[in-house]
Design brief:
Blueprint: H1 2-20, E1 52-58, E2 71-77, E3 84-89, H2 102-109, E4 113-119, H3 129-135, H4 141-148, H5 177-192, E5 198-204, H6 206-216, E6 218-219, E7 222-223, E8 231-234, H7 247-260, H8 274-288, H9 314-322, E9 339-345, E10 348-352, H10 358-365, H11 379-389, H12 395-399, E11 414-418, H13 427-438, E12 444-448, H14 457-460, H15 467-479
Parallel strand pairs: 3-4, 3-5, 5-8, 8-11, 11-12
Antiparallel strand pairs: 1-2, 2-4, 6-7, 9-10
Length: 481
Amino acid sequence: MGRQSSLSALVVSAVMASVLLASCSSSSSSSSTGAVASSGPVAHGAPGSVPESVFTVATPAVAGTPSRYDRVRVRRFGSPTATHVLVLVPGTNGGAGDFDIVAPYLATHVPDLQVWAQMRREGALQNTSVIESTLTGATTYQKAFDYYLGWLSDPSITDHYQPLDKADYRYVAQWGMAVAMNDLHAVIEKARHDGSRTVTLGGHSLGGVEAAVYAAWDFDGHAGYRDINGIMCIDGCARAGANTTTLASAQQAIASMDTKGPWLDLLGVGLPWASGAFSQVGALAALKAPDGPAILQGFPLLPTSFKPSRPVTNQAQFGYAFDASTSPASLALIHVHSGHVAATGDPAGWVDSGPTPVRNVVDVFAQDPLAAADWYYPERLSIDAGPAASLQQSALASYLGLRLLHTGQVDVPLYAFQTSLGGTANAVADGAHFYQQESKIPGVTVVSRTDTYSHLDPLLATPSKNAFVQSVIPWLKKVDS
């Protein structure tokens, strides 16, 4: 029992770190299933009347991968008859739910626009059955906590989540930038609808890198930029300066997946899935019982750095973990400017005082399908991201299977937004201007809020007061005019 407790403490410390980092980063054919209504809460601060649906897009086959995973899911906001589509890609360990606050607002404030939020193919690996049943009221949030996390410290819980065996999923080691680009190409081809609709491509954090890379990518002789009319980088973009990844380090990282598994496991404890589970379970508690005693605060394996000094509610515990004023500085990838724990109350609640209400953070995680968490994010995508962001077809890029053959020809406008994280050393802005220098991009619009916005604020701040949303709307209108 002593050994299990010490291991579990290490596990949960890693889980908390990884979950809080979660939201921060060939030819194709496409088809769609019938649209199905999504479940989960309506995004706080966004129009509840915006049409919304979830559909599937078939993607190119990947050698060794079961065909059931050759597809991605997309959540659409706005009318399917709108003739302009904004396709958005989430960041590292992030899911389509990242955009549930901004997407419906954009769909109602930019004429003739529908917004598609993509969930990468690994989303199909997630088991969210108990989360779904909790959202529908069939089970309690306590049951969800026990099923996904409680069993880590309580061996009496026998009905619990069964993690995937890495030995059965070795093919995921191939799901790098090339697979991501081909999957995204299938989504964009469907969005274009045989050329009858225009498409703007954007993304947050790593998703912003993907958007920048897509335009320069070669799809069997076809340049990606020809499919889109603009690039939108939200706190992630091309990278100026020399790539720091070497061929030897890339080879070593790829080889290490044979033993440690194909998924990103930030602290190396072997439970990559738990990051997504932790975020969604915590959000469920904050959604279902916002004023109840914090279930996570009483969890014996929760590191003290995430526990307020006095009893708080589920909502306050969730806000405390994400707010830039209380969340550890090392977790800047998940920070928002939300508020603070109330000065009174037993348990104490949460007081919103920043641009991002805590309910917005709760809503993007407390949903199913397509929440803001990616449980089984491919390690290979992170290995490829740095070399890809340089936009140069180097020997390393060729080794990794990257096809950055059209950087010099990219001729669509670029919008970039940077926060305190992406704007460190002016990185996002410099990357956007570097891209322009290396290409034929006619114009770059950079909006910087390094003093007032953290990494997730552009996605989760109240849309009517969101500096990203309010600056990108006129840019979108101009791009599609």
